[in-house]
Amino acid sequence: MLRPTYVFGSVFATLVGLTYFAWLMMPGFAGKTGNISHAQRPPDSSYYLAHDRGGHLDHDVLYHGTDAEALTNLKRADILFVGTSRMMFAIRNRVLEPWAAAHGVTYYAFGFGYREGDTWALELIRKHDLRPRLVVVNVDGFFARPLSPGALRTRRDSLFGARKRIWEGEAGHEARRFLHRVIPNWIDLYGRPGFPFGNEFIAYRSRRTGVWAVSPWPEAQMAAASAVYQVEPVGPRIGDAARAFKAELDARGSRMAVTYVPTPEGAGGNPVAIGAMLGVPVIGMNVTGLTSHDGSHLSEASAVFWSRRLVEDLTPYLPVVPR
């Protein structure tokens, strides 16, 4: 009877051999493996691991304040950009950094994965006593959103548990980066029925600005048209949550604006109607020619284009922002 160690060793050696053969004989294989095992490292040391296949670590980092520099910059930010992962893909440092420097303001991208909305944002605003001058909300699926299982787990964790989860996530991330060079995930490389684009990406989060550096960022796959919205009544579920969110900001001396990141798969929320109901500016709208890489988030080029429109529309409201 074969020992499990021998079986594992034989299978491992066979897979390594097959991978080496693929490197030599299959055109384009190196590029495919590069999308996963060789995903780009963050631009510099001011980034930390936010998301890998193991989940979103930035829930733990920002809730428990395990990264002092990130928490300090979050608290000092003049402007918070709030929303789900769609906002995090859309906000680009290459556009916002020179704009913010030119106008003497600071900003922080305060979006999260797991489709977190107003409940999670308010949880952290209150926990860390955040008092930004301006909060820009991507209203797509944001209001009346309960805490995700990931957020509930983070809230239950102790500081020790959060640090342990972050360490495990970072260690697993480094191990995967190495092992996928030797034995890649073939399903991720070549797809499977019902999952044509794959769903793996790595995100590092800037300690200075909160913006995600995403890799791999696939090419555009479909249009992400900007919808034309009309002023119409807002239902009580979303309306009550939106008014409560603004009331919290008002109490903290923060102004509010709303926007909508274009997506082929909207989660609900009329920015024009919500803006009119709350009496706040609506910015970053009616941007044409955008595309999505996965049917939900913007492609990289479109994210840059949309970010330019966003800051252009936001600029007139900046005189009230600097501290």
Largest sheet: 4 strands, antiparallel
> SSE order, as H and E?
HHEEHHEHHEHEHHHEEEHEHEH
* Parts with pLDDT < 50 across at least 5 consecutive residues: none
- Please tell me the overall pLDDT: 85
Distance between the termini: 74 Å
* Structural class by helix and strand composition: alpha/beta
Number of strands: 10
Strand content: 5-15%
Estimated radius of gyration: 21 Å
| Count of DSSP-assigned helices | 13
Strand arrangement in the largest pleated sheet = 2-1-6-7
Instruction: Give the fraction of residues assigned to helices.
Output: 40-55%
List the helices and strands and how they pair.
Elements: H1 4-25, H2 29-34, E1 47-52, E2 55-56, H3 58-64, H4 68-76, E3 79-82, H5 85-90, H6 93-103, E4 107-109, H7 118-127, E5 134-138, H8 149-156, H9 159-182, H10 186-190, E6 202-206, E7 212-215, E8 222-223, H11 236-251, E9 255-259, H12 271-278, E10 291-292, H13 300-314
Parallel strand pairs: 3-4, 3-5, 5-9
Antiparallel strand pairs: 1-2, 1-6, 6-7, 8-10
